[in-house]
Structure formats: C-alpha cells, structure tokens
Amino acid sequence: MSTRRKVGNLLGLAVLSSLAQGPMHPYELSRTMRAHGDERSVKFTHGSIYMVVEQLERAGFVAEHGTERDGQRPERTVYGLTGEGRRELQEWMRDLVAEPRHEYPEFVTALSLISALPPADVAALLTRRLDRLAALRDEARTVVDGALTAGVHPLFLVEEEYRMAQLDADSAFTRAFLARLDGPDGWTRTWQDHHDTNPEEIP
Amino acid sequence: MSTRRKVGNLLGLAVLSSLAQGPMHPYELSRTMRAHGDERSVKFTHGSIYMVVEQLERAGFVAEHGTERDGQRPERTVYGLTGEGRRELQEWMRDLVAEPRHEYPEFVTALSLISALPPADVAALLTRRLDRLAALRDEARTVVDGALTAGVHPLFLVEEEYRMAQLDADSAFTRAFLARLDGPDGWTRTWQDHHDTNPEEIP
DNA sequence: TCTATCATGTAACCAGTTACATGATTTT
DNA sequence: AAAATCATGTAACTGGTTACATGATAGA
Q1: How far apart are CA B137 and CA B172, in angstroms?
Q2: What are the tens digits of pLDDT across the range A7-62?
Q3: Cα of A52 to nearest chain B Cα, Å
Q4: Do B10 and A106 touch (CB under 8 A)?
Q5: Using a CB-CB distance cutoff of 8 angstroms, which residues of chain B are in contact with residue A79?
Q6: What is the Cα Rg of chain B in Å?
Q7: What is the rounded distance in angstroms from the CA atom of residue A80 to the CA atom of residue B91?
Q8: Of B1, B62, B78, B108, which to mutate for an interface test with A (greatest number of A Cβ within 10 Å)?
Q9: Which of A18, A26, A35, A62 could serve as A56's disulfide partner, Cβ 3.0–4.6 Å?
Q10: Pick from B39, B94, B91, B34: nearest CA to B61
C-alpha cells in the first residue's frame, strides 16, 4: 500500500477491532465477523483471516494469548491485542475517517474507456445499470430495516446509509448521462464519428 | 476475481483498449497511458504493465506482433490484439457498464467500525474530512477544466464527472452524519455508553 | 566528461486466493 | 451407517509491488 502502515490490508483493521472485544482464535474471528455481517463492508474469506492474523503478529499488533484444545479437534491458537495493536487501531481509524483517498471503482475505469463501445449500445447498457442499481439499493434498505427491527442501534448501520447515498448518486449520474446521449447536443455524433474513423481492425 | 474472466485485473482492460488503437510494446503502453492521464482511473505502475501483458498473452488476448530494436537499447517486443482480445474487450466493457458490483471503499470499512472511536473525536475527524473532500473535488474540477480548454471532448471526461458526483454525495453524507452527532437525539449518548461499558482494555 | 534522467526490462519478494486435509457432529 | 456439513488449519499457487540492472541520451 501507499501507506507506510506495517499491515495495509483493511481486513487487518477489522481484526484489530474484533480483538479489542477480547482475545480470540482465528476461526472464531471468522465466525463472529460473519455473524455480525461484516462481509458487506470488508472483503474476507476464511483463509485470508489466518493470513492477516499472521501479518499482524509479525508487526507486533497481536500476540499469542495461549492455546486451547477441545476434544480431538485441532489445537487453536488464541490471539490478543497488544498495546501497539490498540494504538494502531486508533490511529488507522482516525486516518481513514479524516482522509479520503483516491480509489479506483470499476465504473470509473469503464467510463474512462467508454468510447470503446458504440453509443447506441451504451444507452441500452446504462438503462440496464439503472435497474441493477435500484436492486442494490433495495438490498441495502432491506438489510437496514431488518437490523433496525431486530433492535440494532442505527449507529451500527451508518455504513449502509453511506452505501445508499453513493448508489443514489450513481443512479442520478447514470440518468444524466443517458439524457445527454438522447439529447441532440452533438454528443452521439462525435462519438459515432470517433468510432467510424477509428477502425479498430488490426488483424 | 469472482468473475470467471481469464484476466481479472482492470489494468488488463485498459491495455486491451490501448492495443485496439494499434500494436505497441509495453513501455509504449506505459508512456501513452500515462500521457493520457489514465492513472487517475486505473491503478498501474511501470512493472504491473509488463505483468498484465504477460497474463493477457497467456490468455490469448494479445500476441507477439514482432520485435524491434533501436540502437543498442534492449530489444522491444511489440504486442497486438487478437480476435479473442477484441471480443473480450467488448464483453468486459459491456459487463462493467451494465452490472455494478459490490465494492469495498475504505470509508465503508471505517464506518462499519466507527464505534471504535469516541464520538467527540469523530466529529472533529469528519470536519477535517469535509475539507479534504472539497480539495479532491477542486482537483477533479481543475483536471476537467484544463482538458476542456485544451480541446478535449467532454466524452473523454465523464469519469471525472462521475467522480465529482460521488464526492458530492460523500460530502452530503458526512455533513448529515455530523448533524446527527451534534443533535441531541440520543446518538452520542448510546455511543458514549457503548464506549464506557466496553472497556477495551485487555492487557 | 561527469552526472542525471530516460528507456527498457527482469527478478525477488510479499500478499491474497483457492484448494485441500482431517476429525467431529449432525442429518437422512 | 452413509452422507453431509461444521470446525479448524495448512499448503500451493498466482498475482501485484518494489527494487534493481543496464545502456543511451542530454545537460552541466
């Protein structure tokens, strides 16, 4: 990562945060994070948790807190936060909240190459996109409503609110783009020209 | 990637798109993409281009088109798009435009763990964030204005417009969040309580 | 001519993903 | 009791980042 953080993966942050509630073994991290619905906000899989815990240990942010054994199941190593780990958690969080960074959403890339598609096709594709955006928005809404009626405090749902706000902005942009395509302000014209003069056939 | 695309890296898409203009060697890809300002929309470095070209070749999307030599500089291998590559470019673009996917912006992760910070601190951090968001917005505006006066067609700047829309939504959300923090609707209360009852000290 | 920067590529390393291994429990 | 699923972990592979290597030109 560009950051000079010793562990750059955001999954590491989520693990630090979980361990702030008390020591756990990696599998338990996996379970509780999954149960808590964290997979909507952090990308992780079973395997990646073991990896990141290892990294955090190398960096001195977590340390072995003992080992347990339960019947003949494999022995589990329990990890706990170190002082350094606690400090890193705070600092990292403060940084993320205060400093937005330049990211690379897939749609940005696609837009930057949009002239590779013929304009008529793009109109159809954007229309389809509006549908899908609405579906994602509904999904978020459902998650939030479900959690609220289950008694979760709204504070623990702000990330979904943010997501919805971004989805709304995406929809609005998409609609505006569509409008410019339909309108006779010359957009489609130059675009089509660009296509015609750019044979793109180099066999 | 979740996609069953043979090459999942979006840099691969940008390379396919560049090669649609004609065969090139990797260094030239690097130069033209950089000159064209693509680094704002796709993350790449010198080294990653060589890597992705190799992957594209393994996948059959590009092929050696010959080798050149210029003086005693290292010999350059020129790559061109194959028929498969051209098809992949189209299909991939259509997919990206029509199907938004679930992504993991850093701020979403931070928000999902926001209760790890004390509420008073968060207010200050969000205020700082507003500044930084404004700066990023200005930056995008400047890029766009510069390009427009240099004669670039707006079609080639839509990705910056999108970025600005997302930044605006981010600002609006941040302001609303701040307002809820200040307001006496109980938010800060439960939050602070959560902090007090959650000692987070496991030394 | 010495030094800096450009042009071009390779290699070494670290991170992340996926698949696999194996005993325990639950379901049919 | 066979099949499926859960609990727990490791290993192998692939991808991405960084640092390095080396000749060529250009500026001081």
Answers
A1: 13
A2: 999 999 999 999 999 999 999 999 999 999 999 999 999 999 999 999 999 999 99
A3: 16
A4: yes
A5: none
A6: 23
A7: 47
A8: B108
A9: A62
A10: B91
